[in-house]
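Homework-ish question, so no full write-ups if that breaks the rules, but can someone show me the predicted structure for this set?
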Amino acid sequence: MSAIITLSLLAVLLLYLGLFKAKKALLPVSLLGLLAAIVLYSIQWDTDAEPLYSGMVLFDHFAVAFSILSLFITGLVFLLSRDYFDSISEHVAEYYALIIFSLTGALLVVSFHNLAMLFIGIEIMSVALYILVGIRKRDFSSNEAALKYFLMGAFSTGFLLFGITLIYGATGSFDLTEIKNYLIANPHSISPLFYSGILLLIIGLSFKVGAAPFHFWTPDVYEGAPILITTFMSTVVKTAAFAGFLRLFLTCFVPLQDFWAPVLLVITVLTLFIGNISALAQQSFKRMLAYSSISHAGYMLFGILSIGAASAGAIFVYSAAYSIASVVAFAVLILVKRSRGSEHFEAFNGLAAKNPYLAFTLSVAMLSLAGIPLTAGFVGKFMMFSGVLANYHIVLLLLAVLNAAMGIYYYFRVIVAMYFRPADREEVTVNANYKAVLFIGALLTIAIGIFPSLLAGWL
Amino acid sequence: METVVTNLQGVPINHYILFCSIIFAIGVIGVLIRRNVIVIMMSVELMLNSVNLLLAAFSAYKGDASGQVFVFFVMALAAAEVAVGLAIIVMVYRNTRSVDINALSRLKW
Amino acid sequence: MTDLIWIVPLLPFIGFLINGIGRNILGKPLIGIIGSGVVFVSFLLSCCLFSHVYDARQAGGDGAFTVPIFEWISAGKLSVGLSFMLDPLSSIMLLIVTGIGFLIHVYSIGYMSHDPGFGKFFSYLNLFIFFMLLLVLGSNYIVMFIGWEGVGLCSYLLIGFWYKNEAYAGAAKKAFVMNRIGDLGFLIAVFLIFTTFGSFEFSSIFPQAAGRVSGDGTLLLITLLLFVAATGKSAQIPLFTWLPDAMAGPTPVSALIHAATMVTAGIYMIARSNILFTLAPVTLQIVAGIGIATALLAAAIALTQNDIKKVLAYSTVSQLGYMFLGLGVGAFTGAFFHVLTHAFFKALLFLGAGSVIHAMSDEQDMRSMGGLKKKLPITYITMLIGTIAISGIPPLSGFFSKDEILAHAFVQNKVLWVLGFIGALFTAFYMFRMLFLTFFGEFRGSKEQAHHLHESPGSMTFPLIVLAILAAFGGLLNIPAALGGGEWLAHYLEPVFAASTAKTGEFHLEHGTEYALMAASGIAAIIMAIWAYGTYVSKKTVPVADGAERSLLSRLSYHKFYIDEIYDALIVRPLNKLSVFLYKVIDRAGIDGLVNGLGRTAEESGKGIRLLQSGNVGFYIFMMVVGVIALLVYGLIKI
Amino acid sequence: MSVFYFVAFLSIFFALMTIFTKNAVHSVLYLVITFFTFTIHYILLNAQFLAVVNFIVYMGAIMVLFLFVLMLLNLNKDTEPLKSNLIKIIGVIAGLCLVVTIAGSLKLLETSNPVVLKDPGIGLVSNLGKVLFSEFLLPFEISSILLLTAMVGAVLLAKNETKKI
Amino acid sequence: MDNLFILIFIPVVGALVLALTGKSASAKTLALLFPLLSLAYSLSFLFHFVPDASMQFEQQVPWISSLGIQFHVGIDGISLPLVLLTNVLVPLIILASYGRKYKGDFYALVLFMQAGLLLVFTALDAFVFYVGWEAALIPIYFICALWGGENRIRVTIKFFIYTFFGSLLMLIAIIYLHLQVPGHSYELRSFYQLALDAPTQGWIFWAFFIAFAIKIPIFPFHTWQPDTYTEAPSAGTMLLAGIMLKMGLYGLIRWLIPIAPLGVAAYGQLAIILAVIGLVYASIIAFKQQHIKRVVAYSSIAHVGLMAAGIFAWNVQGLQGAVIQMVNHGISVVGLFFVLDIIAQRLGTHDIKLTGGLAKPAPKLAAVFLIIVMGAIGLPLTNGFVGEFLLLVGIYNYGLWYAVFAGLTLILGAVYMLRLYQKTMLGETPEQNARFKDIAGTEVLVLGIIVLLVVGIGVYPKPLLHLSEAAVSQLINQVSLK
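A: Not a homework solution, just the prediction itself:
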């Protein structure tokens, strides 16, 4: 909890720093704050987890692991922000603060133990993002993305809320333990409200994770938002949403698996196919990544579909791998866009000849996203597949395999562009922060790929 | 006042749910059929409010106060959302001179 | 003594290595000496070995020695050793291979002296001798197969020796491929043998086989397959067409490989496996039938050929047919005897033809020759001896061997004899036709050729003379009992064919009948020779030009019964068409098209599905609502 | 009892008016009335404090904000381009389907227990306050972050940027 | 002393060093040094190997303990020949590429691939196997796509997706098996002990089979292969054909058949039929190819079809033949592609019509080429014969008619190979080919070694056969006991 408080204070501090025009201090202070939060979380690791504050939050291993992951990724995103926000606006401090706010929301989402906390967490996360997506105020795409995101987000919030209400109507409580107890106490006379509540919660959460058919905002918003915000959205926010999703289902709804699993199954398959097939036809790297994030949501849904003791670990590793790779990919995209002004695949042509380092790290990221062994992405996929097979969804896995093969095609397009398509271009200048992020990203991707125990042992 | 209230206690909980569902659906319809962003936002408010009422009804039905407390959070959210939403609308309007959602289709495919 | 048997094949192999590696360093004389020398030493050793076997035979033993060298392949129960077997049959083959091989090496020194590929040629020849020796000496089917394929390789290399000529290279390929068809039969036969008898070793297989009943189905299959192999190597119907084309190689090659040794490998192999064939009478009938058919067909073609080597080539095919006829009618000794005599006279004839070609500045068309007997006296006389021998005119060698075969055929089946007799008539006619066209009458070639005409050098005439002597007197080796001969060869080979003889019983023919047969064929051959003299010397007929009108039969014969064309139309061209079809239609368009189609389908559907992402919020929300309703309907059903 | 049904009817009626009125300003006004009927519902449920808050927050603050923005952007004309009738019909049908499916999946047409106020006092300020500041203290505090976010964001977005992109 | 980890990591270290030193001039020397080191070290394994059925030099450390994954490797008589093959061919291939302007990155990829291959051939844990399987794929993709011909991008991506799809199917099967093992392990041995019912083994069979069949490739999963072989740079083609496709065959022996014997019982016949069809089909297609590399590409399909059929026949001869033929084919095909590379490099064309008559200007090349061709068509006393003979015996033991059709390779192989030889080497030398330079320097060295191997194994194959004999018999017994 102290970490969350630290972050809230950090955000306020940043606002003040902005007020006093201490721009130079913003980045170091934010990073320090994140570091402090990570340290605070790590200290909590070994303590026995009990629901705190009248059962509002629970900092168990699950929460701590996902929190640290979110903090770490946010740190990477911050590293990338050098020179980035400056080009957008003078109010850099506010942006930092908003990102921290959104992060706070994410941390709440991963550690909630009461539907009220889930709701508030999600909303903090989302409201901050509505703003961040629109911070390029003169940019039509950014405007449009913000408005679309806001409208659809608000709309889906209604369903989420309706769902929470119905659950409340059935059980009389928002507390996860109480809800679980209700299920245990009435195994045969569960109120219909409860069932519909689950369905509506699935709808609300599917929207947040970008699963079909509630994914429509994802490509447009990811494309329209400033790249750095897209990075944050597709990594931290998605991870947190999944963690929340999983936490809710893992704690409460496991006994009703027979009821909701078919629904999720259909959603998963739809998500996989829509994400992958649409990604095949993209010309913009950024938009391709957006669709790819949809398809990854499909893979991560496997973790919830085959819910069990191993799901948490699987989703954790998967989202870590996916997030790290995405950060690298978006970082390179920022650089390329800066030098060429385009987000299309053609903009990457011949990159390997001039910037072998960039090309190499991006390739590692793409291989990881595609799930090639010796990268973190493979470990994630492997754990997901293991989980699914343990539940004997062999047909589903065959579909997943088909999709994974399709994935190769579009992930490799950028590799093909970088390495195999010659083009006249100048060397892209890369500042130290970017170099560091790319290095860390590639290194971690490979390290986790080779020694998955680094992460897999956490949960 | 007391008597009026007690008189009303005979309403089955199902009717509350049905009523709120209808209002919720009206909100959804509003979102679907209007093009004015502000009206769409109002429809969303309608949806949120129907949920609020349902929460209150359940709260009363269960004799549990947390439902009514939850309504506060929803209201806080509604306020925050409206503030942000209207800010976005204003921003968009400055650029496009329109609040028509159909004008927003540059990002696609 | 027999322990050193491995030296015999090793020597030519060493010669191959030295000549192969040093072909550009060593001088031509040295190469010639090394190349012939190793073969000569082998020949001497072979003589020693022969005498060894001979002594053993004289002592009453069967004269068979097996010498294992090392284990070559082993997998499970299957074990193949590289080991040699020396017995009467192989000892004679040894002598033929090394002896005639040596002579031809010597001949080649002269014949090839102007060729830039001199060293290569000798190395190939040595390699051939090596493989041929392996084939002959192998104590099991696998070593035999090594030699079998190895000589095929050398044949390929030597036919295509003048590789710059695309047609020659093609002929080489044709020879190799046709041989390979037979080889497949060989290999499968070997598998069958292994599964039936559990071994590849002759010494283990034949005794077991002897215990089987006649007409055994497995044996039938085995022998048929072996016979397929033999048709490939020994140029029988339907796989004979490569042999005439093989004349593309230098003439010594034709003499050595395509007349004296390699092509007789099929006969050797069947003689070696005689017990298997004896127990498969159906196969024997087929062998006889194919043999006589080939003999007649080839003889008929030879009647009208104008290329001196082509005539000899078809004659070889025809004579090989006789040998198969001999095998088919159970005259194993006779067939082998014919191998022996044929080796002498056919090598002689080819070398003689080579001498002529050499003198004619590489002209091979007999229509441009004539009247050469004065210019090339030694060649003429030796070739005359060869011609008489092959025509079956007594008392030269061919008469005896051919007669033995025909006598057996007569006992077996009169029709076979009649056909064989007709074949013999053809033989006499076309051989004398060749002789007369070449050496008699006026010279028909160009002035320049006339100017260059000369007798060949000593290195070429010496082998001719030696072979002429052998061709003349080779028949003495097995003079039939009817003529008071001792049938030395038959006795010597007895243990090899003992088991077969035991099954079929002794060959028996009235002396009177035998005299009649001999007389018939001898006289007939002389008549044909005279007829040929009448036609080509007295009337001075010269074969018509290529494009000229011919009678139907003549046309068929001249065009080799269109067999090459038929094969081309029935096999080669359909296969080529099939190849293109499979590649373009099935592989590229079909299977690959399917694979690519899957990819394209995905991409196209991507283009379709992304249209869902219309950019319109209203539509998005509508889709969401549809999703919501779908979920709730599910709930409605499920709860 | 019949009061509930009467007010519910009014709510639905004005809600429908809200979404079907062409003029946006009228929509806002109908929405205000709808929210007023909601306030009555809260009172009927004996949730007085909620009723008051609803009255103030929604009808007061939020609705005024809407009106303010409408006026600011000068959108009080009948100029809103309406969607085609087809889309409208589809939208309405979809909405009706939604009602039917919600109702069906919640088994709303079966008889159920009437609302009985087990504890008539829960809607009172003091009781709510106790719950809010004990059990729900954390979310209450946290929601301040939400509001802060919204505040910062709204200011940030609505402010005219001086710097060119 | 004989540490398999070190053997596997030598190339990895080499790859890293080369990747970092990048464009330095010493890249070539370094690139040769590491594989030679690897080769020398693997000889130590050869000398200490006891040719019995046991698994030797086993090394095992926990890798991902939470999933029960061990980094478990070992060598037995079946893997040793392949390990040796890999370690012999990689230096040869690197030497063969000396004539080209490759830099450190290229060699790094080659070495990285070597590590992957070694991992595949030594893995005793299914996860390790899978990782090696894919790890070998990435570098070859880059090699082909970076230095390949005109259509390389399209062709290589198809190759990659195709093979990747197959291996994912295998991954599913592996995970499934893992879940069936009591105590959830990925150990090969525990997979062997599973007794699954026939339908399960049936689909396990297909999952593995498709993965392997794509890689080998077996008809009708082969269409990526001719394209890739033709488009890839020669070193890539050599790696692909020489070593990589052995992964699939090795997988059949080590993984598919012992794990799913009932599946093999049900569908093995179909597999053999496919393999034999592919053999005849590819041979016939090879007749008329105009692109010289394509001829060898299709010939390769034919050859591996024979090997696959021999493996599915599942008897000592067939398996022994497959093991030795894997080695032989590797050697021959590397030689063939190298010769074709030399030709194509100097003439600047792959068109069979434009080559020809090269025997005159380049007699050494012609001689070497001839020996390699003879090895490829299985002439006795060359390596090819030993393998083909044993394979045909094995197939024959399975069924006469299979052997007859498989034996057609003898004939058809001679047809297309001799055509290739004839069209490139023989005939009149066209003017533009007259100044063709004969082989020299490293080319002689590489081809010389290959020729020595071709003839050496052909004349005295026993030591090589001896290595695998016990292991093969043991494997067969083990499966037949099930």
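Now go work out the reasoning yourself. Hint: The beta strands of chain A are 51-52, 57-58.
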